[in-house]
Amino acid sequence: MKSIFRNQRGFSLVEIMITLALGLLITGAIIQVLVSNSLTERLNRSLSSTQESGRFIISRLRNEFLMAGLYDVLDPDLNRDLDVVLENAFVRNHPVILPGDFNAFNDVGSVQGASGTNDKVAIALQARTDCRGYKLGYAEQEEFFVVNEYFVDGKTLKCRGFDGRVLRGQKAAVGHDSHAAVTLLDEVESFQVQYGYTNNLLTGDNSARPVSYVTADQLPAVLDDDGQVVAIRIAVLIKGDAEVSLISVPSFKLLNETAISPSEKRLFKLFETTITLRNVKNFMRSRKV
């Protein structure tokens, strides 16, 4: 029995130290993998959120801007409480609303933001609801003269809708007359707009193709020279919603603006699109040089 206990031995100090060192290495590797997986998951979530937000807002703005300048006097659903022929002329000639188009509402209209700040765009059309989904006192199936305005408040892209007849002083506001804005998209770093205009005298034909793109503050001169907006180009810079810190953030150039570098070292993505105003193009094609 004594010989059996004499042959048993424990771990030496060197063996214990080697085991501890290996354990620390394995634990460190596991922690590193977990941290890496967490960072990858947050990055993927941020990429996914910006992509989803970008696709949503571009799709929505495209669908709504496509209708700018729409007015059909033959539509049986069009409300006819006022002279729709005169209203048709106004909408056709003002698909993009500028400040001053409505005497009592001078703040409504498309504005070029100063020094790279966010732009504001307003459009006119015939529709069943405004951009907020409100009927503004009209019957369920009725269509009416709508003015929709899109702008950024803080970091939130919003829209507000108006009854064009109220803006023109032709009737009193009915329902949702506060014109309160609704949120379309959060985490908007920058929102920029340009307007493609045509001029039959410059193009030499009735193609209604854009001859140049300008900002909102240049539109009055374009319109005075018998030009008309036939396309809207928008650029939106969106921030990812996940907590992802980057070593450096690249610069982004939105349309005609000077390149900007966001102050937050987060993930940002730029979305741009050009929207043809088909109703306005068809109207301009029908005009003679």
Compact summary:
The chain is an alpha+beta fold and 289 residues long.
Order of helices and strands: HHHEEEHEEHEHEEH
Biggest β-sheet: strands ordered side by side in the sheet: 1-2-3-4
How much helical structure, as a percent, in the residues? 25-40%
Which regions have little confidence, pLDDT < 50, spanning 5+ residues? Answer: none
Counted by DSSP, the helix tally is 7
- Compute the separation of the termini in Å: 119 Å
How many strand segments?
8
Structural class: alpha+beta
Largest sheet: 4 strands, antiparallel
Mean pLDDT: 86
Rg calc: 30 Å
**Shape type:** elongated
Q: Strand share of the residues?
A: 15-25%
Overall number of domains? 1
Structure description:
- This protein is an alpha+beta fold.
- It has one domain (44-286).
- The chain has a 4-stranded antiparallel beta sheet.
- The protein is 31% helix and 22% strand.
- The model has no long low-confidence stretch (mean pLDDT 86).
Task: List the main descriptive attributes of the protein structure presented here.
four-stranded antiparallel β-sheet, alpha+beta, 289 residues, 7 helices
List the helices and strands and how they pair.
Layout: H1 2-7, H2 13-65, H3 84-93, E1 121-127, E2 144-153, E3 156-163, H4 164-167, E4 182-185, E5 188-198, H5 200-203, E6 212-214, H6 219-224, E7 228-239, E8 268-276, H7 278-285
Antiparallel strand pairs: 1-2, 2-3, 3-4, 5-6, 5-7, 7-8
